[in-house]
Amino acid sequence: MFENLSERLEKSLQILKGQGKITEINVAETLKEVRRSLLDADVNYKVAKEFTDTVKAKAMGMNVLASLKPGQVMVKVVHDELVRLMGGAAAEINIKGNPSVVLMAGLQGSGKTTFSGKLANLLKNKRGKRPLLAACDVYRPAAVEQLKVLGAQIDVPVYSEEGNTDPVQIALNAIKEAKRAGRDVVIIDTAGRLAIDEQMMREIANIKKAVQPQETLFVVDAMTGQDAVNTAREFNEKLQFDGAVLTKLDGDARGGAALSIRAVVDKPIKFVGTGEKLDALDVFHPERVASRILGMGDIVSLVEKTQEHYDEEEARKLQRKIEKDQLNLADFLQQIQQVKKMGNTKELLAMIPGMGKKLKDMQIDDNAFKSAEAIIYSMTPAEREKPAILDVSRKRRVARGSGNSIEEVNRLLKRFEESKSAMKNMAKGFKKR
User: Fold this and answer.
1) Could you say which of 173, 260, 273, 421 has the lowest number of CB atoms within 10 Å?
2) Partner residues linked to 218 by β-bridges
3) 195 and 127 share a domain?
């Protein structure tokens, strides 16, 4: 996410390194490169020009404090403007009705159905809501089935009507069903088209008029770049949606849509899809995104993700084991599984300040954990408890049973000992404080 833009902006801002004062000449040179970086990232031309003009106006004539370098001042100005460009602060979803109605809109293939499932999952697990999914795409039979599969995975009911081709009536009936069943949020998945057409707009407008949703969300594939912004503009003119959702942002190294949509349609980005799993959905925080674009990391999001999968009692048990030097491979396996639950490993590491650039050319495969898990699962309980008993004969058996080589078994055991030692030293450091 934003890899190319981050790299280009970093190079652009290097121009000011070593300069004693921000002048019109070095600011102009820097901002020329910044604008080029934004355009290459598929940012709308008008947005890119206004952005650099504003940065120039704020940076011109600024005195560089003794403790700062001009490059750092410019980074601060660019960061603040990126935050403002993307909306300033996170925008909340309105779910105050009873039931609250959330209407999805967007082109076919934008990820509306998957996002509907992800949103239901988020509202259920993080907001304590009891959602109902409504299948109102009457043109694509697979859409209804897909929604039912998603609903089953997250244990959320799906309302559909076989044979009914009136999406307005299905949506109204879904709201009645939600009231009857005590469901407090209705998420309406609607039909999309391959391109914007009058019939599509009339239909979604009719649904909106009938159900009076608290929230209308425009779902758009971030990988379509500038087309995403143009589509958002056309939808907003006809529908006046409340916020945008960017799906597949994890697959777009440019990020131009994220930087342009707010400025073009004056509607906030509320959520971003960051992966295929049903929990790979994040609230859009402009300040955190700006920090990541400029290579500053995103510690707040990393801490939040950790806390979501953090078991306080298990953590205390683990700490006691570390202090007594009793950590074993069963504990190591548990830690691997905790990390896997948190999402894409490369994305998590990129949240650590300074790591983004180092990770650029690294291939980090989430499936790499599978080999470690297979090796540990192939051990007996006694071997997991006391890895020291793993002699050559036992290692050969474990390698055979896990489909790995004996060298890979040795590598895992070495990593385990290194992790064990590092955690023990860390625990000692905390005790001294």
Assistant:
1) 421
2) 105, 244
3) yes
